[in-house]
Write a structure and sequence with these properties.
With 265 residues, this protein is mostly helical. It contains twelve helices and no strands.
Length: 265
């Protein structure tokens, strides 16, 4: 049943007229109407980004950061380009939220150090076992109780962002930084298409080598678009447990993709 107190959604023709008035005439009222109409996109993106973030990060703050991205997207959107505004805006909104989170630097150094320790331990075990280690094996290798390891995985699940000057392997001289891996958009890359296809193949192979539950979590989250909470309901476990499994799975994939030659033996 229609809510009589809710304002009706503007028709597509009205939205097109708002765009015309704003882009051609600089109409401020039309701009405000566009911001209001597309504002639900901000809540959607903030909800997706907020999954796995610490509880002290307020959803309202994410929405506030995202609104700046939406406004920027509306101001810079080119009507002559053959793309949907929603597709363009989602990327701008997400970028604005992530930029603000990076600027806040809310992740303690101890958590980042713990993440590197777990990453190294997983790489060592994966190399010796020639497969993805279980959480029990990883905990034993690190000399910590399983419950402690799981708590640590829950903590480092917040590490969705990295500094560009962070070393990939702090233990080695001349180690590359994350910034070294950022592609130059102006550079000519004749082998880019082939390399992308090859990386997709290696990633698919790495996912197939994960334990069944980890593979299922990765598939549902990245390919089916389900939230961690929804995946928890499907598997009959808590959202925090799914968050731990997801973190370990991503670390396993990262280690395998960084192996020399990305061998699949």
């Amino acid at each position: 049943m229609t809510d009589p107190t809710r304002a009706p959604e503007p028709a597509a023709a009205d939205i097109a007229e708002y765009w015309r008035r704003f882009k051609e005439d600089g109409d401020a009222a039309a701009r405000e109407a566009l911001i209001l109409h597309f504002s639900p996109l901000v809540k959607f993106v903030a909800g997706r980004v907020g999954v796995g973030l610490p509880r002290n990060v307020e959803q309202s703050d994410l929405i506030s950061y995202g609104m700046f991205g939406l406004i920027d997207a509306i101001d810079k959107f080119d009507l002559t380009r053959n793309i949907k505004f929603e597709t363009y805006a989602v990327n701008r909104i997400k970028g604005a939220i992530l930029d603000e989170l990076r600027a806040l630097d809310w992740v303690p150094r101890s958590v980042r150090a713990r993440a590197r320790e777990i990453q190294r331990s997983m790489a060592e075990l994966g190399h010796s076992l020639q497969r993805t280690p279980t959480e029990e094996e990883l905990a034993e290798h690190m000399g910590v109780p399983l419950s402690t390891l799981q708590d640590q995985l829950g903590e480092i699940s917040t590490l969705g962002f990295v500094a560009l000057d962070e070393l990939l392997d702090p233990g080695e001289r001349g180690s590359s930084t994350m910034g070294d891996l950022v592609a130059d958009p102006k550079a000519i890359d004749p082998g880019g298409s082939y390399e992308d296809q090859e990386n997709r193949w290696f990633l698919g192979d790495a996912i197939n080598r994960l334990p069944e539950r980890e593979r299922l979590v990765i598939t549902l989250y990245y390919y089916e678009g389900m939230t961690l909470s929804e995946i928890g309901e499907v598997l009959g476990v808590t959202e925090s447990r799914i968050c731990q499994i997801h973190t370990k799975s991503v670390m396993s994939l990262r280690n395998r993709m960084m192996e020399p030659g990305q061998k699949t033996t």
